[in-house]
C-alpha cells in the first residue's frame, strides 16, 4: 500500500471506532467526557514512561486506560457529592491534564514526548513504524493496534446492543429489569478510554475529540435509529479521513487538523441539509403545513 494509503487507512480506523463509541457518548449527553479523557490519558502515558522509561509497549496502553477510568471515577464521585456534571468534568479534566503537562516539562527530559505531539499526533510517521505479521507481511503498528481496538469495540457493542440502547435512553427502566447500569457505565468508559488511547499517539487529542463527537452529532441529525446512527457515524469518520487528507495535501498543512476540519464540514452539511432536523427542512415545514 502507498504512503498516503496507510495514512488514510489509519485515520479511517480511528473514524470508525470513534464513530461507534461517539454515538453512545452523544446519546448519553457525555460529549465533554470525550474531551476530558482524550486529554487526561496524557497523565497515564507519562506515568507509564516514568516507571518503565520506554515510549512503546503494552504498559503505555495500560497506563492510559487507568488514567481514563480514573477520570470517569473522579467525575462521577464529584457529581455524587453535588457538583454539577459539567463542572466535575472541567475540574478533573484540567487538573489531571495539567499534572501530565507539568510531568512532561520537569521529568521527561529529552524523550520524544511533548505537548505538541499529544495535541496534533504524528500521523505522518505512521507508515514508517511497521511490524511483521504472519501471512500478511509488514503493516504499520498503529494500523494493527487500531484494527484490534475496532474488533473489540464491535464485539462489545454488538454483543450488548440491547443493554447499551436501554442504558442510554432510559437508565431507570434498564435498572428495573436487572441490567447493571453502573457496571455498564464503567465498561463504556473503558471502551472510550481504549479507543482514545489507541488513536492518541497517531492522530493526537484534537482529532480524537473531533472523531468521537462530530461525526456522531452529524449522524444524529439524519436518523432516530441507533444502529443506523452508528453506521452513518462510522461512514462520516471515513469520509472525513479521506477528505481531510486531500485538504491537507492541497493546503500543505497539518493532516490531523485537516481531518478534524473535515468533520466540521460534514456536520455543517448535515445541519443544513438533513431531512428532519436540518435548517432547510425547518424552513420548508411551515410552508408545507400551510398548503
UniProtKB/TrEMBL annotation:
Domain of life: Bacteria
TM region(s), chain numbering: 6-27, 34-51, 57-75, 87-105, 142-161, 173-192, 198-221, 228-248, 254-274
InterPro entries: ABC_BtuC-like, ABC_TroCD
First-listed, main subcellular location of the protein, grouped into a coarse class: membrane
BP terms from Gene Ontology: response to zinc ion; transmembrane transport
Compartments, as annotated in UniProt: Cell membrane
Matching CDD domains: TM_ABC_iron-siderophores_like (cd06550)
Pfam families given in the database record: ABC-3
Membrane topology: Multi-pass membrane protein
Keyword list, A-Z: Cell membrane, Membrane, Transmembrane, Transmembrane helix, Transport
Keyword Transmembrane helix appears in the UniProt entry: yes
GO cellular component labels: ATP-binding cassette (ABC) transporter complex
Family label: Belongs to the ABC-3 integral membrane protein family.
Protein name: Manganese/zinc/iron transport system permease protein
UniProt source species: Cohnella phaseoli
Lineage, uppermost ranks: Bacteria, Bacillati, Bacillota, Bacilli, Bacillales
